[in-house]
Each structure stands twice: as C-alpha cells, then as structure tokens.
C-alpha cells in the first residue's frame, strides 16, 4: 500500500463517478484520486480544482502513465486550486491564487491564528487548505485570519516577502485605506531580479519549449516502448493468453486485466523477474523500485525492494504464434530507467522514529564551562541536539560546572524554576555511548530536576517550530474526524455463552448460537505495520430468542476509529447460517472453523483469532463505590477495598497503555494470550541484543499488536524496533529497551488486572453479605488499620519523611492510613528465613490496580515467558530503602493522587553487591540476595532494629562511601518469594507541586 496522498491510473471500467462533477469517468480515461483511506476519484480536469500537488512523487502510479499524461500533470503541479502553467497570469501568479482577502460577512468565523472570532466587516485574510481531511473530502477550505495574525504566521502560511499583497484575490474590492493598511503590514514585494531563463523569449515573454534532458529522453522512449507493447497486447491477446505467458515465464499471476497487461508488458520489455532473493516471492514494479509481494513469515510481508532485479529472457511459446505481434517479438535485454527524483538505490529502512542520534529531540543551554561554548555547541549539534539560550520546561539540561551550580546565578535560578537538571560536561562524552535521558539524572549537579523523559517528549511532540506544530495539530484534527463519535464504553450483552455484538442491533431479540459448549463467535485481528494496517473483524451466528431465524453478523474496521462497517445476513435454517459462518471464517483466517481448536495455523495476510473471554456479563461485576452500608469492616479497610477494586482505575490504566477497550473490554483478554505476548517481547529483546534485521522486528511487532489489541487511531502502529538504540562501537544504549520495557510493564499490570477482575466476578450469590466484605474475604488477607498514636505508626511515618529522595522533589507524601497486613500462609512460608541474618523492612510500590493480585497471591516474580530486559539485576522481587524510589512506581497523578506502598520484612542474608546493571540468573555461592549500590543511602546512625531483629533503615539521604555508581539509590533484590513477608500497607496521598 502506497503512502502517497494522490493516485493516478486509467479507469478500469466506466462505473466510477467523479467526486466533483458527479458524472461518470469513461473507461481507459485518465483519472486522479485524493486518498482518504480509499481513493476519491476525479476526472483529470476536475481534480486540479480540488487538489494541490507539490511533486509528481506524491502521486502513486505517476510513472506508469503515458508520457503525454505525465507531462500534462507536470504542467499542473504547483498551481493548485485550478491553477496550472497555462493559467491566466502565468506561473508567477499561481501561488497568490490560494490567498484571498475580504470583509467578514458575519462574526461567526474564528481566526485560525489566535482562535478568537473575527468581527463582522473586519478585514480578514485566508489561505486555502488542501491537506486537512475536510479539504480532501469536500474541496479546499479557506483558513481565515485576522490581518495581524496572518502577518505573524506568514512564514508558516508561506506568504514570502517577494509576494505582492496587491495580487491577493479580493484586494481590489477593499477600501483604499484598508488596501494601504494591508500593504503596510505585509510590505511591498522585495525587488528580486529574476534570472533570465532560456524558457522565456526576449521578444514577447512567451515561454519557449523546455529543452529535454538526457534522462527525460530515456524515460520518454522507455514509456513509448512500454505502452506500444501494452497497446498491442490489449488489442490482440486475450486475458487467458496473458496468464499463459506469465506462467510460461515463471511469473505469478496478476489479478484483473489492467494488472495482467502491466505485468506482461514489463516482462516483455525488461525480462521476466527472478524470485526474491530473501523469501522467494514475486517482485512487482511500484513507481520507484521493484517490491517483493511475498511473505517472510505468516505474520509479515517481505520488505525487499530493488531497482536492479535479476531477470531472464522473455520467451513466447509456439502455440501463441497465431498472434502476429507475439510471433514477431524478439526480446532484447535492457534495464528499466528510474527518474532521479525517485531513485533511492537502497532498500527502505523500517522504523518507528526518525531520531538516529544520541541527543535527537533534546535542547540544551550552555552555562559557564571549561570547554568553549562553540566547541560544546559543535558536539551537541553533532549528536543531534540543539543549543538554545533560554532555559524553560522544554530544556533537557543546562551544561555547567559544580562551582557554577552552587551559585545563585540568573541561569541557575531559571533552571530551578523550570525544574531542569544542571549537568557536567562529562555528560556529553557519556551520552555519546547512548542512554542520554537516564544519564541526565546520574550526572546531575543539583538537587532539583523533573523526569527528563517528559522533557524530551515535550520537545519532540511540541516540535521546534510552529510550522511542524501546526502540522501536528492538523493531524490531530484529522484523527478526530474518524474517532470523535466512538463511544467511551460499549455495553456487551452476554447471551448464549458469548456477547451479542451491539452493532448488530439484535442484542434484545437474539443470542449467540452455541453447540457442544462452543459459541459461534470469533474476534479476529490483523496488524501490518509496513502497510499501516490495524484491523479487526468480528463474526458470529445469532439465533432468535423466539422462533427460527438466524443471522450471520459481521463487523470490520480499523481499531479505535469509526472506519469500517457491519452486516447482518438473515438465514431461515441453522445449517445455512453455519455454512456461511464457515465460509467467512475460512476466507478471513485461512483455517477451518471445525478444526481451529485442534491447532490454528496463522496464514499470510490473514486474520488471527483473539482469545477474548466474553463468558461473564459485566453486570456480574459490580462497582463497590456505593457498597459498604452493611459491612462489618472498619471504614478505613472498606475504603481500601473499594480503592483496590476500583473498576474505573483499571480502565484508566488500560487506556494509558493504549489498550483498545472497545475490542478488548476490561478483564476479557485471557491469561494465555498475555503469556503469548510475553514470549514475543522476549524475542524482541533478543533481536535488540543481537542487532536483528528490520524485517525480524517488523514480524515480532506485528505479532505483539495482534495479540494485544492497541488503539492507535489513524496513526501507524509504531515499530518495537532498535531505532532508539544508539550505538557507538559496541556500546549498547540503555534507552534501547525503553519501548519494550513499557510493554513488559503493561503485561505485568494486565495480569494483575485480570486477577482483580476475576475476583470481582460472582460475589455472594444469595446477597447476605455486603459486597465489600465478600471481596475482602477473597483476598485471604487479614488487614487492620493501625492506631495513629502508636509508637510503630509514628516510626513508620518518620520512615516516610526521612527517606524521601532529594531528586524526587516534584511531590510530597502525606500518610493517610497505615494497615498491618497478614496474608494467609505467608508467615509459614517465611519461617525458614526468619533466622537468616540481615533482615530489613523495605519499600515496594505498585499501581493501586495491582494490589488485588498482590494481596491475594503475594508478590510474584515475573513469569518465565517474560523477557529478561528491564530487570536490571534479573527476575526477582525489587525493594528500596528510599520511600520515593518505590513511590514512583505507584504511577499517581494530580487527578488520581492516592497511592499504596508496602513495607516488607525481606530476608537479605549475604548480599551480592553491584554498582551497575548485571542480569543475575544464579547468585554466586554463599549469596542470598543482590544489592544495587546507590550513590545516596539512608544515614546508618539513625537505623532502628525491632525486637525480632529486623532493621528499619530510617535516615536522611546521605552520600554513600562507595565511589562512582550508575545507580542513584539502593535496590535490593531477592529471587525466592519465600524470603518476603508483607508487614504493612501505607495509603498515601501525593501532593504534586506543579
């Protein structure tokens, strides 16, 4: 699928009608399309009134047109809005035909610059928009501005200084004083002496015929030869004979007369194509190269392309010699000529990002440094960064010295106010090896600094110039066009073992047909990043609740948008409905429905079934927010149970992960499918470490997004690739696994949400107990609120206060409640480790949505399917002695400021001490745990030890006597769940400062 905004071809039939004049487009006549998911076709003349094309490379199929049609299109390009090289006023006047000025007819229109209304009879200026979704569908849209707003945005609106305001459409209709005002604001055109061109004759200014270049001559002759063959084939050779010629020459059959003619013409002129060297598939010409149409795996299309494919001689079998043209054909070896404007000479590199340098998308301010500002600027720019003079919230860091950081200079005050880190010059040499975002924190010279990841995202997303910002806003509006009417929640009515799709309109009169415990229901997904595909297909048989009618219901479309459709086909017999269901399922998946449970085999370019459980109606899962009136639990415990079983919080977490809640409602994705997704992420981490091919990343990404449906709206699904990997020599960037790690976190959370949701199902069948009490009992954990005046409560509050890290200064923590926690069976499991030395009371933080899983099943080590990436010291249970380090994992926000923290008795024993990430699969002999040694540690002199020998590392953060470390704070890891006993849970409120 081409990414071009436009398409050109000769009409294959006379059925299509022009979107502008509504009359039919004659067969074989040139037609042009504006691409809006599907082509909107126009007559050639009508097209130029609706579109503005800047280059022939924007038109898919341009190079396959006849030469005279290519030349005609080139004559139009750049004019837009009906302009052409032959327009009145000539090409010099064409750009101004897109601008107009007038008196506002009412006060209803809004200024596209400031957003405010433009008053009636006020002078307003516009530029035609050809690119928005509305413009593509209905024609150019005038973007009106106040005069001053237009002047301020003239660069973005491409009104250059050599343009004459008096030539703007409507200028002459203005009052004299308004004409003078407009000229005064926009200025008279600068006197740019135009170069004398051989295209203009000195005598009368008429255009002379442009001299043909050598390349154009070759392309013209090539086009003539190609179309000569094609025209002869169309006149004299039947479609069956065309297929025979392709088969005889070892080529895959094309579908449709036009494609058959194209394929045979290409073979006869240049020679039949050898199979793809990467997958053995058929190559096909597509504008700028020959692309493989085969598949590397059943999930992913081959990405091979070349401008110089291997070929062989074209042969005509004797039985075709009854056609004079074929009998007299003599093959002469030649290579296809490609226009220089499209020649690439190398295969495309697939990627989700254009950033390829260590500091891409980052801004820096240079303060007082030992190296000169000019030298540092060259280094930063060379690494993809940008040097700015003003420090604000978009700045990644200020580069300076420790001495300067300690002064209260103007720059340091600006950095502190914007919460921007100040880093040393050594940061740049370290960042050259990758991991710039993380290194900002480790090289910080000051106690302040917000999350640097948010700052690099702000720079990239906000863009560095208003033009790209406006483009971003425009794409958001286009996406809204296809997403604004999507409901936030889809009510699924479960009848017959599966949910009746609400789009069928039959949920009140029919149920899903079920036989031998298997409902006739399938939810299918197809993701192809290379083509931008993110599709779903739903299929089910519905049986009337009363009577005998049956329906085969189908729904399809793009995930997260309104693009798509549905169809309910009625049948009088069950057998006929089943036959149709089998037929559609086989067509969409390439598998037999009756055999799919024995083992589904993914087929190329076909859908894959999602294991989504619609077995329980959402009505069974009741919100606890209004329950508790009959509860026997204390109010603090009631509130805690309501918090950890809050359905809305679970939904928010899924939306944050871009999960498609329409196709995968809360709690419906099976554990098996989540485990399968873990395996794909494991593959991806291996690909990153082994520098796998782009095609391998594409294949794994396609599988992951199919297994876990994501809502990307109109955007292409991003590749889970190595584009974030920056390598210098053999050094691997620590940012390279950021994307994969975010997906690991997502699956970890989905598993806990799945546990919480399964606990919410059912409940007390006879209704004798309050739902809050029922769900409390399901946790199999004794939870009691502590006395706020007790010595232990006050000690734990002090632990919170003293171990809040200096660099985690964007929020304060207010302790609202502390609970004692005793999980059933955990004390018994912990008993063998009670006598192990070095037991400490340590912090563990997680989202509130994870605590139903944590309390009911305990803290769990990542499953075997999960990749090793992201676990700095291997798969284990991670703890901290600084409260804010764990609090960061609560993922609290200003709108949801409540978090839950655990304090656990952790039997550490002999610790394997490390200062940098090292994946631990097996501890060294005699070691019981791992300690990641941070540069800041709680002050040991104020530690407390209880009667059971457990150390509470309560103390203000102080510099650790360990030398240099890649960690800011300590981490403790155990690899056996039995070494952990949960003792306390703290309910805290995050007080965000900004």
From TrEMBL:
Pfam family, one: zf-PARP
Boundaries of every PARP-type domain copy: 6-81, 99-182
Domain PARP alpha-helical: 630-761
GO molecular function list: DNA binding; NAD binding; NAD+ poly-ADP-ribosyltransferase activity; NAD+-protein mono-ADP-ribosyltransferase activity; nucleotidyltransferase activity; zinc ion binding
Entry keyword annotation includes DNA-binding: yes
InterPro entries: ARTD/PARP, BRCT_dom, BRCT_dom_sf, PADR1_C_dom_sf, PARP, PARP1-like_PADR1_N, PARP1-like_PADR1_Zn_ribbon, Poly(ADP-ribose)pol_cat_dom
Keyword match Repeat: yes
Assigned EC number: 2.4.2.30
Catalysed transformations (reactions): L-histidyl-[protein] + NAD(+) = N(tele)-(ADP-D-ribosyl)-L-histidyl-[protein] + nicotinamide + H(+); L-tyrosyl-[protein] + NAD(+) = O-(ADP-D-ribosyl)-L-tyrosyl-[protein] + nicotinamide + H(+); NAD(+) + (ADP-D-ribosyl)n-acceptor = nicotinamide + (ADP-D-ribosyl)n+1-acceptor + H(+); L-seryl-[protein] + NAD(+) = O-(ADP-D-ribosyl)-L-seryl-[protein] + nicotinamide + H(+)
Residues in BRCT domain copies: 354-445
Subcellular location: Chromosome; Cytoplasm, Cytosol; Nucleus, Nucleolus
Superkingdom in the source lineage: Eukaryota
Protein's GO biological process: double-strand break repair; innate immune response; protein poly-ADP-ribosylation
Region (Disordered), start-end ranges: 186-217
Residue ranges occupied by any PARP catalytic domain in the UniProt entry: 770-994
SMART domains reported in the protein's UniProt record: BRCT, PADR1, WGR, zf-PARP
Top enzyme class: transferase
Protein name: Poly [ADP-ribose] polymerase
Species of the source: Capitella teleta (Polychaete worm)
